[in-house]
């Protein structure tokens, strides 16, 4: 049985912050040392400590999940690929986003429908509420916050192409990153990117 959480509401894309933490990880710092640097030196230049803590909580999961091989790919990649890798790590912790990608967006692209509307998100969450008790317990406010974060993440990696979050496209993964995913047998993540191939 799948397990869904609403943790994505507190973990937006945070490219600059994640990138900074991955650079420190690559320099040999431990996750605890990175946390200390974030909180004590305010390397994100945030005004509030609470914001630092909240952001680092989401980033910490990414730091824990990235292995040495993927970190090397990340460090040696252009921004576009870096964002794809962050997206991959986000989906590893947020099944609600990965399933939306594969169940809704992949089907749209298969049928030549490149428009995504608010009602598509609402239908998806209604369906998940019927199937999974944990989703049914989420408030409407939580669901709408999730939808908002999902839209912004999909825009960040260019699957959603406009600021109104209505147009979608298939994107190509970086070749080296895709090879890594193939080796890791990440079929679920690769599904959307292979639609129509």
Please explain how this structure is put together.
The protein has 197 residues and is an all-alpha fold. It has 2 domains: 10-65, no CATH class; 94-193, uncharacterized protein from magnetospirillum magneticum domain (fold of a uncharacterized protein from magnetospirillum magneticum, Orthogonal Bundle), CATH 1.10.3540.10. It is 66% helix and 0% strand. It contains 11 helices and no strands. It has helices at 15-26, 31-41, 49-65, 68-75, 79-93, 95-110, 118-131, 133-136, 140-156, 175-183, 187-193. Helix 5 (79-93) packs across helix 6. It starts with 14 loop residues before the first helix and ends with a helix. The mean pLDDT is 94.
Write the layout of secondary structure elements.
Layout: H1 15-26, H2 31-41, H3 49-65, H4 68-75, H5 79-93, H6 95-110, H7 118-131, H8 133-136, H9 140-156, H10 175-183, H11 187-193
Helix pairs in contact: 1-3, 2-3, 5-6, 6-11
Pfam families: BrxA
Protein name: Putative inner membrane protein
Protein traits:
197 residues, mainly alpha, fold of a uncharacterized protein from magnetospirillum magneticum, 2 domains, 11 helices
Q: Brief overview, please?
A:
This protein has 197 residues and is an all-alpha fold. 66% of the residues lie in helices and 0% in strands.
């Amino acid at each position: 049985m799948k397990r869904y959480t609403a943790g994505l509401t507190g973990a937006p894309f945070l490219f600059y912050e994640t990138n900074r933490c991955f650079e420190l990880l690559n320099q040999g710092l431990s996750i605890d040392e990175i946390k200390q640097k974030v909180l004590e030196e305010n390397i994100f230049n945030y005004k509030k400590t609470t914001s630092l803590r909240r952001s680092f909580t989401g980033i910490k999961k990414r730091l824990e999940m990235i292995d040495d091989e993927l970190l090397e790919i990340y460090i040696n990649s252009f921004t576009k690929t870096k964002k794809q890798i962050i997206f991959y790590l986000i989906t590893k912790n947020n099944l609600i986003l990965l399933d939306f990608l594969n169940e809704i967006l992949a089907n749209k692209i298969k049928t030549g429908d490149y428009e995504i509307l608010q009602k598509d998100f609402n239908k998806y969450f209604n369906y998940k509420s019927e199937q999974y008790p944990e989703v049914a317990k989420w408030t409407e406010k939580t669901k709408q916050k999730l939808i908002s974060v999902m839209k912004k993440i999909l825009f960040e990696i260019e699957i959603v192409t406009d600021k109104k979050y209505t147009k979608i496209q298939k994107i190509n993964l970086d070749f080296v990153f895709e090879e890594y995913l193939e080796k890791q047998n990440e079929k679920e993540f690769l599904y959307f990117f292979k639609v129509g191939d």
